Amino acid sequence: MTAKKVINFPAKLIVASPWFIIFIFSVIGLIGILNHSMWRDELNPWLIVRDSKSWQDLIENIRYEAHPVLWYFSLALLRNIADTPIIMQIFHLSLAISSVTIFWLYSPFNYRQKFLFTFTYLPFYEFLLISRNYAFGLLFIFAFCAAFPSRKKTYITVAILLGLMANTNAYALLISFAFLLTLVVEFCFDIEHRQQYLIENKKTDLFISIAIIIACYILAINIITPPADSYLHGGLNTGWSMTLDLRHLLKSIGRLFGGYFLIIPTSKRWLDLIVCAAIVLFMVVLTLIKLAKKPFALFFYIVGTLEIFTFAYLRFSGSGPRHFGHFYLILVAALWLGSYYQESTSFANKFIIPPNSLKFVHKWHYIMFMATLYMQFFGGIYGFSRDMIIPFSASRTTTEYIQKSQLDNEFIVASRDANMAALSGYLNRNFYYPERQDMGSFTLFKKGREEVDESEILKQISSLLNLPQYKNKILLILHKKLQLNQNDLKIDPINSFEKSWIDTERYYLYWVSQK
């Protein structure tokens, strides 16, 4: 028996080592990201960087995306290393690994919680395989939490991290602002912390930190403010919801439920909305009471959650866990920050809570938090596994066929333009877009671009075939099966690629020539 324990002890040590889990995550992540078929939201930024004519042109193009500059500037630097979007995927993988490493080495959670979180939906799927700026946001949220104790000596480190966080995406900007307000409130109301900081630091440290934050926030807000001729506003073309609507309120609370548990209640059914709202509000109340003795962590949790909830209600409810999943990250960050503080009774004593009730709260908060982690864990495993089996987009399969069939040098008309970024990125070439009546690669939703139907597409192809340089035939790529025919055109189907998780990125190839 003793011999077995001696033999098994090194194996247990290896499995329990954070570096072992990080290594496993890295290997699986590399396999997954190289298998992943990128879609338009990944490759459109790459194309903007690739085909912008100057740095000024790049910045102007970014403003139509309603995303800050950090991701685009990173892609511009990566293009100097290798002119292939694969390098973007490798870089994105390194961001995911860095986030997980910081979480394992510095977060206060126990082994089981760290293990579950590592393979939950956001770090193991959405912010790992799908190369977008959200991975930067996760990295800087965790880096800020890890560097939080350094504020006692200098604010410059956390100021830089807040500035970088603000320039990743709109949700990270909101979380960055919640972190900033927490620092301000702590500095104003924690006399001991303020006096200790002022004794150990010169005032220049505070002024430099404030200057960094102001400059970074001005840059982020300026870039994400869409130009006057942008008609999609970064995807937020639904306007503001300024009226009080109970169903819409419950729908927004449902996004909070989805952020924690990855299940979005059906907005058409009142029962679903009410049940999910009751569950998630129970979780929120438990968290508020648990953090009551850590008032600054509580303040961050309240402000961060209210920010994103307000944004979800008034402007944009989110189109997937990559958006409303930030509720989940705020919860994790709040518990992380809470671990740095001693329990304070100054706030909790204002609300008399019996000891037995506190035991109930701590017990059920642990149960609910673990339920959240397990739901996120199963969601992460499912999402990752699905991506390995079903291509996220049919873009790579279509590209491989085009190259194998030596069609990549043909003149290509592609529509809808917004759904063709992945093909343009993989083929490293431009297409003729009927929406713009011009050659292009990336799509900006601005003046000069118009949606077209099949008849307009065929009409433009007919005009192109009358030109001398296009007298033979044209390769047409659509993201929907062609339903229309035209008397003066001969249309021959070539192939179709319908195996794709994203139904708008299935591709249909046709030869079009004059009769």
Account of the 3D structure:
It contains 23 helices and six strands. It is elongated, with a radius of gyration of 26 Å. It has 515 residues and is of the alpha+beta class. Helix 9 packs antiparallel against helix 10 and helix 14 crosses helix 15. The protein is 62% helix and 6% strand. The strands form two sheets. A four-stranded mixed sheet has the order 1-4-6-5. It has a two-stranded antiparallel sheet with strand order 2-3. The mean pLDDT is 91. A hairpin with a 4-residue loop joins strand 2 and strand 3.
**Helix percentage:** 55-70%
How would the global form be characterised? Answer: elongated
The amount of beta strand, in percent, is: 5-15%
How far apart, in Å, are the first and last alpha carbons? 85 Å
Rg on CA atoms, Å? 26 Å
Instruction: Name the average pLDDT.
Output: 91
How many beta strands in the DSSP annotation?
A: 6
Q: What key attributes describe this structure?
A:
23 helices; 62% helix; 515 residues; elongated; four-stranded mixed sheet; alpha+beta
Summary, kept brief:
The chain is of the alpha+beta class.
List the helices and strands and how they pair.
Elements: H1 2-16, H2 18-35, H3 40-51, H4 55-63, H5 70-79, H6 86-106, H7 111-118, H8 121-129, H9 134-147, H10 156-166, H11 170-189, H12 191-200, H13 203-224, H14 246-261, H15 270-290, H16 295-314, H17 321-324, H18 326-338, H19 345-348, H20 355-389, H21 395-404, E1 412-415, H22 421-427, E2 431-433, E3 438-440, H23 454-465, E4 473-478, E5 489-497, E6 507-514
Parallel strand pairs: 1-4
Antiparallel strand pairs: 2-3, 4-6, 5-6
